[in-house]
Design goal:
The protein has 207 residues and is of the alpha/beta class. It has helices at 11-22, 36-46, 62-72, 87-95, 108-119, 127-140, 149-159, 164-171, 175-189, 194-203, and strands at 2-7, 27-33, 50-53, 77-82, 100-103, 124-125. A six-stranded parallel β-sheet has the order 2-1-3-4-5-6, sandwiched between helices.
């Protein structure tokens, strides 16, 4: 039996969720909260397996309540169930420690399956939410460093274990020029040593 606490400030919506969950014999609604603070208090008193949390609530927002619950009650997992799917709402809930994020418009079976999955320790995201997160991560990822062909040549030889004099000899350039190329590569990769420069260049797929 999975014990569930339902937190939603709209009585009709809350009763609808409770009614939906009561149709599943493996779920037991142990409490109902009408605001974020009450959700924290009931979670502390009842220790449910899962808190089904709305985001926009008085006293404490869903994200604030989630943060307190996940920090103070490690065994209690939070599944956000809301109508909101803006980037800030999603990230706020996930950063607060929510184990999942589903929309109220989701089919009944998806919500029930989400509760079971979260109770088992998994993370659950509605497909549209997952797509939003991926898009935002791609948008915020820093641009790939642009190293010149000669800077890449120098780094390849550094990766092969060559010293500056050996690199200078192989590339037919002076040691001072080798050092200059390395310094430029360091600046572009935002590192301060040869090992990290090579490692990061490999992570970026430059080498």
């Amino acid at each position: 039996m999975i014990r569930v606490l339902v937190a939603d400030d709209h009585p009709i919506v809350r009763s609808g969720i409770v009614g939906l969950l009561s149709l599943d014999e493996e779920l037991q609604v142990v409490g109902e909260a009408s605001d974020g603070l009450e959700a924290v208090e009931l979670a502390t008193a009842l220790r449910p397996d899962v808190v089904l949390m709305d985001l926009r609530m008085p006293t404490l927002t869903g994200a604030e309540a989630t943060s307190r619950i996940t920090q103070e009650l490690p065994g209690v997992r939070v599944l956000v169930l809301t109508t909101y799917e803006s980037d800030d709402d999603i990230l706020g809930a996930i950063e607060a420690g929510a184990s999942g994020y589903l929309l109220k418009a989701a089919p009944q079976e998806e919500i029930v399956a989400g509760i079971r999955s979260v109770a088992e320790g998994h993370t659950v995201l509605a497909p549209s939410i997952a797509a939003t997160l991926v898009t935002r991560m791609r948008r915020e990822r820093p641009a790939r460093p642009q190293l010149s062909p000669r800077e890449l040549d120098v780094l390849r030889l550094v990766a092969a274990g060559r010293s500056n004099p050996q690199i200078a000899k192989e590339l037919f350039i002076g040691e001072a020029t080798v050092k200059t190329h390395l310094l430029h590569a360091f600046e572009k990769l935002e590192v301060s040593d040869r090992t990290r420069a090579v490692t990061l260049a490999m992570e970026w797929g430059l080498l």
